[in-house]
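Interim report, section 4.2 (structural modelling).
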Amino acid sequence: MAKVILPQESQLEATGVSLEELLRQQGLADEIVGALHDGELHDIRDPLPATGEVKALTITDPEALEILRHTAAHVLAQAVKRLFPGVKLAIGPAISDGFYYDFDFPEAISRDDLPRIEEEMKSIVAQDYPVERVYLPRAEAEKLLRDEGESYKLELISDIPDQEISFYKQGEFMDLCRGPHLPSTGLVKHFKLLDLAGAYWRGDSTRVMLTRIYGTAFPSAEALEEHLRWREEARRRDHRRLGPELDLYSIHNDSIGAGLVLWHPKGARVRHEIETFWKERHFAAGYQLLYTPHIGRARLWQQSGHLDFYREGMYAPMDIEGQEFYIKPMNCPFHIAIYNSRTRSYRELPIRYAELGTVYRFERSGVLHGLLRVRGFTQDDAHIICRPDQVEDEIRVVLRFALDILRTFGFTQFAAHLSTRPAKYVGVPEAWDLATDALRRAIEAEGLDYDVKEGEGAFYGPKIDIDIEDSLRRAWQLTTIQFDFNLPERFDMTYVGEDGREHRPYMIHRALLGSLERFFGILIEHYGGAFPPWLAPVQAAVLPITEEQIPYAEGVAGRLRAAGIRAEAWTRGGKTLRYLIREAQLQKIPYMLVCGAREAEAGKAALRLRTGEDLGAQDLEEIIARIRDRIERKTPEL
RNA sequence: GCCGGCGUAGCUCAGCAGGCAGAGCAGCGGUUUCGUAAACCGCAGGUCGGAGGUUCGACUCCUCUCGCCGGCUCCA
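Predicted structure of the assembly:
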């Protein structure tokens, strides 16, 4: 007997029937749209499992969202088939915030076609077709698809082992599909088509390019509205919009080159603060700072294996006095060369080399994206070289270090991914096991949620990747901690042990922020351009009310600067206070010091915060103390 | 690289059936001296992304090209 948990906690016991059947007997069928058993979604038309607990889902259950969206994708496909005879269907799954369907249209469609597709979808929803599940014997299924000209579906079916093939049918529309689906199309009430894009059939760039239509669906109008507002907010915070608006950085594809970033004074100031903080923390944690060149001879990259395995990511060589040089795509070989520059004793280990190292990698033009995907970037790189007995501690310490630094930037939600040994690997399994265990224990010691990606480690070692969640709840992969069993071998890295013999050290690559460019882009979006005081390029704007107060305002700004606060007196003549405040707001400057005749008289300034809060006239000492405090604590509070 | 869309002043955008290229903001000059998100007047600013074609005439139509955006793909 399976136990069925219904909404409102009531329970049923049943066996040998489908959930749909069971509920119909109880007169509840309309509310339930899916079933959850062992963390897996099931169709209400499926027979209930023999034992265990089944949670019956209503359309408002978060777990049911996937079913809703999958059915929405079918409604989309049905609408498209009605409007574009001759279209072929590929695949149409639910995704994390909506759904899509890939089509092969007889002729190109454009975004302008989305509204009428949406209209047709609405009519399909209004028709409220029951969604039926149909199983066809393989031969019959193939014939059906062949007759319909559904060549993509035919290809999919050949990968399905089952003899009875599952289809779903709603009205005149029938689609090869494993399900589950809603009971009827009328339940897809709140949806919207969002985008149109190209997508290769089966993600394979050698195959045909299909047209993908993206949409989203929610159980309520409010949830849909909220999602659309969220998209709008994300658009508003786009670092590619805010970056130039706040005069932080620019990219000039035509004159300078795609994926190459110019850091303007304000962006450079933020970067400087990040780097200073980063260096201080690294010194405190026992790292040694390095600087290494931007190019190196071909033989170096030959020895490292980059030319064999990573050539397509590297720029073409340059000829210097008959020798080939390559611009560096990674810093590791240089760090190793420093390690290898003399004999190392076991007493010296662990050695922690850190570098803000600028590297250049070829990325195809289509993937470049603002600061998030560039061709030249500065990694916050480090290599930890240690003995086997130090691995466990080093990993634990580096992970804690990483989280600590990320928290300072206002990130509090983390998820870890542990990637283990792939089929093709270098090194010995014992070393892999030791390393993988150390990684796992470190994650567990920090109490992080994590998943294990079996076999997804690089061929040279297992790794941890950390995703952070930003203020819009978007995940970004930042930190990576990777073992390397390859380079120590290739460069014959050794240390002399207690036993007087040479041993091979363990080497760990790690980047905490990833790259400064990408991290900056993420920070801009995370804060919506409103940096906390310690990072804000301009921390205080001193605003004179009339030209009379210009000298006083300059004096105030000078006092603040002397106290280590980035302050500017805004002394352009003829601007009203309202104007200056609006300017400062748009620049997202945390503190505005209003200086009128009254303040000048009293040697004070009226403090206004970026939040709009007016704190009234205060002594300069008081204001300076407040701002200094926020900067020192690196808090987002004003 | 591929599919779709888009390129008009520094920025945001309007314009066109093919007939002298427009507005707001920013900039510059002046007036105003102002109390918490845009004072007022004026001036200047464009090879309409680039090249070729159709046409008496192209910002407008066609072809190519460069760039951007949304995705796909790749990421030892």
